[in-house]
């Protein structure tokens, strides 16, 4: 088997409107599809970042009363989502202007590139990486 690329990543959120605002209005994702799934009593929001062959979709499922995320990022399962940016310092400044705090910028010990973490409204770790 030869996999071409990651098509999408799916996450579950606790507050649909808050998460939609965060990912669309603050991080700049583009809405591809938005559907209320009556049979599951949840919202499914498909977002896109990037263009063409570099585009990746983020599927957001807003379910009523999902279990809380474990507080350790080292637990089995999704650890974090990482986004490539040209300038970590500029991206951090933009996030902080929107009231979104970031951890101190540091160098990735393997790539020697600048990186930092911040969190979505449900505490999912998100990384910025040059």
Structure write-up:
The chain is built from two helices and eight strands; from the N terminus they run E-H-E-E-E-E-H-E-E-E. It is an alpha/beta fold and 130 residues long. It has two domains: 1-67, 2,3-Dihydroxybiphenyl 1,2-Dioxygenase, domain 1 (Roll); 68-129, 2,3-Dihydroxybiphenyl 1,2-Dioxygenase, domain 1, CATH 3.10.180.10. The strands form two sheets. Strands 1-4-3-2 form a four-stranded mixed sheet, with helices on one face. Strands 5-8-7-6 form a four-stranded mixed sheet, covered by helices on one side. The longest helix has 11 residues, at 16-26. It holds the Pfam family Glyoxalase.
Indicate the topology.
Layout: E1 8-13, H1 16-26, E2 30-37, E3 42-49, E4 56-62, E5 81-84, H2 88-97, E6 106-107, E7 114-119, E8 125-129
What's a quick, concise take on this entry?
The protein is α/β, with parallel strands linked by helices and 130 residues long. The chain has helices at 16-26, 88-97, and strands at 8-13, 30-37, 42-49, 56-62, 81-84, 106-107, 114-119, 125-129. Pfam families: Glyoxalase (PF00903).
């Amino acid at each position: 088997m030869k996999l071409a690329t990651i098509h999408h990543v799916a996450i579950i959120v606790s507050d649909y409107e808050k998460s939609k605002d965060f990912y669309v209005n603050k991080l700049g994702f583009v809405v591809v599809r938005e559907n209320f799934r009556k049979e599951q009593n949840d919202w499914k929001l498909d977002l896109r970042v990037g263009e063409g062959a570099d585009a990746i979709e983020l599927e957001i499922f807003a379910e009523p009363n999902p279990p809380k995320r474990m507080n350790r990022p080292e637990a089995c399962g999704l650890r974090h989502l990482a986004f490539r940016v040209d300038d970590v310092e500029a991206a951090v400044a933009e996030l902080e202007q929107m009231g979104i705090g970031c951890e101190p910028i540091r160098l990735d010990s393997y790539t020697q590139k600048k990186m930092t973490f911040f969190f979505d409204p449900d505490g999912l770790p998100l990384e910025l990486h040059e």
